[in-house]
Input
Amino acid sequence: MALPQDALWYKDAVIYQVHVRAFYDSSGDGRGDFRGLAQKLDYLQDLGINAIWLMPFFPSPLRDDGYDIADYQTVHPSYGTLEDFKSFLDAAHQRGIRVIIEMVLNHTSDQHPWFQESRSSGDNPKRNWYVWSDTDNKYRGTRIIFLDTELSNWAWDPVSKQYYWHRFFSHQPDLNYDNPAVREAMWNVMKFWLDMGIDGFRLDAVPYLVEREGTNCENLPETHVIIQDLRRRLDTEYPGRMLLAEANQWPADLGPYFGTGNEFHMAFNFPLMPRMFMGLKLEDRKPITEILQQTPAIPEICQWCLFLRNHDELTLEMVTDIERDYMYDEYAKDRSMRLNLGIRRRLAPLLDNDRRRIELMNGMLMSLPGTPIVYYGDEIGMGDNVNLGDRNGVRTPMQWDGGWNGGFSSADPESLYSPLMLNPVYGFQAVNVQSQKRFDHSLLSWMKRIIRVRKSLAVFGRGSIEFLYPANHRVLAYVRQYGKDAILVVNNLSSSAQAVELDLRRYKGNILIEMFGRNIFPRIGDLPYLLTMGPYQFYWFRLRKI
Amino acid sequence: MPEETILSDDFLRELMNVGEVDLLVGVPTYNDARTVGQVVQAIRTGLLKYFPRQRAAIINADGGSKDNTQELVRAASISDMQHADNMYALRTLHCISTRYAGIPSSGTALHTIMAASDLLRASACAVISPDSTSITPEWIQTLLQPVVRESNDWVTPVYRRQKFEGLLIRNVLYPMNRAVYSSRVREPYPSDFAFSGRFASHVAGLDSWSQEAARTGAEMYLTIAAITGKFRIVQTYLGPKSRTEGAPADLVAAMRRSVGTLFWSLDSTFAIWSNNSHSEPVTTIGPENEVDPEPLRFNRKRLHDMFSRGVGELEPVLKSILTPATLSQVQQIASSPEGELLYNDELWARTVYEFAAAYHKSVISRDHIVQALAPLYRGRTYTFLVENRDNAPEALESNIEDLCLAFERSKPYLLDMWNGRK
Output
């Protein structure tokens, strides 16, 4: 299958986020690999996703799950070879699935040869590739991100006897983007993968590229200049490829990352995600509508990326203190579930394994403006293991069946990169792909259906949104419109049945067609349109003037 | 079901949108645009500050205001488009207003609020008077917390009163209610109070709402319902209570609403109060009474004149209400010169009880009985003011306690009168 030649393909995408290590082990060494991932592409094609976002797969000491890269231009030996990657990429493309890879621009591992050279002496040519200082007093207005492990953004290097700057772990020194050689080197890294055929990059930790005294060293204008330069080169040399920003920022700070359409194609909507969980728990749409009102308009060719869960903790950086306390109390009563400023749990356990809530949240994920990302395993309702430390509890092996190692690997269980989920609720014998494939009403089957319906109309990925604000605050309702297509989405955030009256007068004369069952609902007239909804129920209606 | 008739379809639709709540604050109004905005803002701040996570609503039951009272209440809503200044709201806060049918009446308003509270399954509900301009956001915490945290059912206020404020409460309602119902509720006729969902369900379903006395003196009726229903009662200190400026108090109307309702309640609760003996203290959060030593100014001569003239003019009526002995004593003090008028505690307690018994027996129109008490009350008020003119707050409180004890001692006399033994 040839990939559709649409430059805006990312707007219609349904992205599946996966770590090679966690998906399928073809070699029997206890770690997933590219050959394994390639073998499971049929599964992903059947699920309906049309893009894969791969977490870092580069050589790395793996002290931050691969985000500490020691070599940007090859594959970690545990995951296979560059040839394996190329084979996987081709196989994905043949199935109409695009591949987005991770690019950690901000920092390297302290094991990267660049850093080893840089720290070797003060006059090494690569000394200026990182941010060095005689004092740890510079940039004092900068927050510490990993509060649970780091006391400072500076770390002392006993070799070269200076401090080096790091926004994340101390073993991840920040690259110095004031140095043109660094910028050129990173572009060359990107070219390496673009030449191989990848479809886009998810650029990690974008806001932190540049440091300036007297600022908080985030979202600086100089950072945007660097992004604009990368984008210009990308559009010129590799049209149709995509840049996705990881910028965990407030809405007002997120907008500039799209520029005038000359920076990122897409950016994660970090502020929205926790408020979806908050709205659900509060049974009140206000947190969701409020944050979307604050979300800046973006250029026509740009797109938000929406997600419910990912490989990190459910970040609560972009919420108020009141909201954070509420989220902790409601979603992480057990303190071991909390990490940094977030909650390290998967979707199903966060929602008490309540199928209705899982469906509702996925319904919103798929119908709010943006491109949805499904985190591997959430399509079958996998659980988490908070006892594994850091964020490893949400990175356990994919559960394929109820057999040996959950079908993930033929290795001895002791040699797996991570223990499998074993408990009676979320263990691989209870939750796995094989068992869910057998039933039409399983979560996996339901996910396939909703992805299929989502992909049936471009309005989900490209349409405008108009909120309806019914007087019943437990109901979140909006109309998405794209060209002649219009859909009405109505979500009941409440645990109880609700009646809601919608003002649909401007769509008078349309009939409503429920998009899953294709049943016809009464024609819209002058009166408020009355709907009754079961607990956590949602409707997607297509508006048709027939 | 009473709520089927008291709640309009439009209001029901609004309640449907509010949905189940944890907390509800009711505001009964009638042409209160001058003060209600300030009061509702304080309520909203109190809810956001002290109960940020709870589902809450503010409900206004309006008697048909011609000013923009209802709009001022609705404007306090917090929704997708409306925000609170300087306060972060986690949730939507519905501020809804309904115009109830019929003439303006606190009873209908409170019945509406209680029915709404019952329907919305509020676990705690407060009612705030629209003229309580001295309200602070802390009032909301102070009133609701005893219900939310300690499972109390009826929370009455204790205010910091000016020395000669609340005379009707101090001279009639508190002493008599305490003696009859054996519960030392300081403000049995509260304008700001709170109650539990359990109590709202109980009261919303009572048939008595259809009766005039329950409607006009609903606050009094609710206190009595809480006491006689053996609900958990607590008093809580709110601080100073603002007084309505300007409008002269209509004593007779006030007595109809309070004393009339108290008298009326005695019929249906006889089996309960006739068996009570000693009064029991009520748990009080904060000071039990606080008095501002600065006295309000009263025209004592006018009080004296109205008392003397009233006793004279109403002699035929009083004859049908009071025993000859009591009437004779009342007439005697009514004829005494201004400086010597002394309506003592024992005589006053006996007077009030004789009125209550007459009300029970309906010797004349019940409304006329309540009206006839007004001039006598003025005589008693005169004595109270003179006695306490120079008293410190402690001495004032001691005198009130003496009066209460006089009412308690005389309770057998009420029973005798009631049963026709005298």
The first strand of chain A starts at residue 15 and ends at 18. The interface with chain B takes residues 278, 282-287, 289-290, 293, 320, 322-323, 326, 467, 469-474, 494, 496, 498-499, 501 of chain A (CB under 8 Å). DSSP finds 16 helices and 22 strands in chain A. Chain A has a mean pLDDT of 95.
